[in-house]
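Q: Got a minute? One more chain.
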Amino acid sequence: ALFAAAGLDPGAFEPTAPIRQPPVFAERRAAWLGTLPELDLPVRIEAAAAGSKPVHFELILPSSPHWVEPGSEGGVEPEVPRTVGFFSLLWLAFQLLTFVLPVVLALRNLRLGRGDRRGAYRLAAAVFALRIAWWLLAGHHVADLWVETSLLGGALARAAFVAAAAWVLYLAIEPHARRLWPGTLISWTRLLAGRVRDPLVGQHLLLGALAGVAIAVFGGQLYFLIPDWLGWPNPPWLPGYPFWPFFAPRVDPLLGTRAALAAVASTAMGALWALFAFLTLLVGLFVLLRRKWLAVPVFVLLMAFLLWPAGLSGQSWLGVTTGMLIAVLWAWLLVRFGLLCIATAVFTVTAFFVFPITFDPAAPYFGTSLFALLIVAAVAGLGAWTAASGLPGAARAVHE
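A: Always. Here it is, folded:
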């Protein structure tokens, strides 16, 4: 019955020893190995039961951290490709650069009196509000005043921490970005100042939404569809890929309206953090290399490695092309149009990956998919309406 509910053919799977501990109490466990026919992708199924009732049924793909190569279930560690270890180290170095460099730069800018402190406070307030909104929507609340107060205290502490981190990042990076690439901050600064109906703000919202849709379609869909259309082998699914958890589809948006709204809040927070990670990397490369013309190409190469390591490690020429094109587009959006544009693009891309997207009205998750599409359409529509309502003003602003 479980296989039928999952749309799987039991005859296409072979029983194997279970290795996954279920997250709930269980008395019996079972596992199977097989292939998803639509994707020609190996899959492990782990199931468990308590008494006569099933309590756990999980499909584990090669991209999952719980995946174990067939034949190594008996305690032998699966062989990890060297490229995975290299890119994991590169990802760790990227994280250290993102956290250490801003603290040093922020202290220096505060000592010299540099930085847009008003914008930093407004950004921190927005991050704090998003974090609290996410907790209110996604948190597990109880009808006990003492316990709920304790949960609220923890949520406020975590929200204050991430808001303070955003404040430090902005004060660290904003003066350098304003000096090196002043155009990156124009629409962003106007939005922080409350000028939501500014035509330039609308233009960058619209462009970011369109770029995000293009990246999601090309990098997330055509990368797998093109080889299938041409009869080529399926491209790699990037096991061990450091960015995969951020773009992996999740099931929590399917739990209802509250969960879907919480996913929107978490996606917005993720877009802000990705934005500052990109900008920190670009400014950090300039600090190290001291040349703008050299910092941007190195930024493109690093982003290509981080975004599509399997392709750049020689596993797929299509992956090389995809990674480079997406990295060039990210760099162009960041340097040419700025923070607001790339933040909108990251939000759109993440939304299309986090929410399950379908155009089939009969699909059980069609409502959730429609909700995500309407969110993206609302962002693009707001940008188009704002940009079109003041074209003369926008032309004057660009001219000035």
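A: Confidence is low (pLDDT under 50) at residues 74-78, 238-246, 309-315.
Q: Perfect, thanks.
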